[in-house]
Amino acid sequence: MILLEPNSFVLEETLLARFTSEKPEIVDITLVDFDNVIYHVQTSAEQRTVLNLSVEMKYYDEVRAYGAEDILRREYGDYLVPTVNPQYQFTLQFNLEQLPADKAALAKHVSLIKRNVLASSFVRAFEYWESQQEGAGPLMATHYRDSEAIYVQAQHDRVTVIFSTLFKEEVDRVLGKVFLQEFVDARRQASIQNAPQVFYSSREPPLEIRHLPDLRQDESVGYVSFVLFPRHFANEEAREKTISQIQLFRDYLHYHIKCAKAYMHSRMRMRVKEFLKVINRAKPDRVTAASDKRTATGRYMRPHLRQPASPQQGESDW
């Protein structure tokens, strides 16, 4: 199965095309990423060498409480400027005449902006684990989609990540249950014992979030819990890899559900074609008699036999 990349490929290609363009042009492009994130790439007619990237995230107010602004200043501090349009939460500005030598690396780094902002709750949970405090840390919720959220909570020996995902169709619900149950069963294999523990429930929310109000508890919602142990975030390299992979779980799940449906539909269409071929071959050929002749229009002409005339009254059979 394909693995989705944590960065926005279309944003990377758009920025790289602008960074490497020999002649500055007027640009006004709107891009859409997973989880309803909108990017607006724009240059003005007065300043064609100044490129603005504005980002809209509906959940930005939530992640800002977990330190998203600190991450933005750390990763993109030289490019952050006050945003002008109230529709967007923050803006990056690039002077096309003063870019670094490695423009491809800059475009790649900027395309990770959604991943870096959404990582704020994970970073806060890992910092709480490092502090070695007793008891459970604060429960951090990020409602990154309508009726769906990510819940992160740290404890002294682990970090729990809970996804609530919504299945709008009955077929998606059945396939999603099969996929999620496979996540649970696959960890029993000896080759992947180091993977995080996975728990799945179709209606009842986990204990960590059961006290929260307005949680959906019907057949259309499922809850997936990942238990991260210190080996998954003890060093910087493992921490960054864990954040990048676990963020894409929801997109990964629904992407492969759609791929499974498309594959099954293609197989059904192929099977229907084969059945139609069998039915067509089963039609009996029309057998024509030797005496049948065709007219000029292609119709069959069959001679009608005359009936013998009945004897008239008064005549004998002799």
List keywords for this structure.
single chain, 318 residues, alpha+beta, five-stranded antiparallel β-sheet, 9 helices
Structure description:
It contains nine helices and twelve strands. The termini are far apart. Helix 1 runs antiparallel to helix 4 (about 105-110). It has helices at about 10-20, 60-65, 70-75, 105-110, 115-120, 120-130, 170-185, 235-245, 250-280, and strands at about 30-35, 35-40, 50-55, 80, 90-95, 140-145, 150-155, 160-165, 195-200, 220-230, 295, 300. A five-stranded antiparallel sheet has the order 1-2-3-5-4. It is of the alpha+beta class. A hairpin with a 3-residue loop joins strand 1 and strand 2. It is flat, with a radius of gyration of 34 Å.
Please estimate the helix content: 25-40%
How large is the radius of gyration? 34 Å
Note the total helix count: 9
The succession of helices and strands, N to C, reads HEEEHHEEHHHEEEHEEHHEE
Shape: flat
Note the topology.
Blueprint: H1 9-19, E1 28-33, E2 37-42, E3 50-56, H2 60-64, H3 68-76, E4 80-81, E5 90-95, H4 103-110, H5 113-118, H6 120-130, E6 140-145, E7 148-154, E8 159-166, H7 170-186, E9 197-201, E10 221-228, H8 236-247, H9 249-281, E11 293-294, E12 300-301
Antiparallel strand pairs: 1-2, 2-3, 3-5, 4-5, 6-7, 7-8, 8-10, 9-10, 11-12
In short:
The chain is of the alpha+beta class and 318 residues long. It has helices at residues 9-19, 60-64, 68-76, 103-110, 113-118, 120-130, 170-186, 236-247, 249-281, and strands at 28-33, 37-42, 50-56, 80-81, 90-95, 140-145, 148-154, 159-166, 197-201, 221-228, 293-294, 300-301. It contains 9 helices and 12 strands.
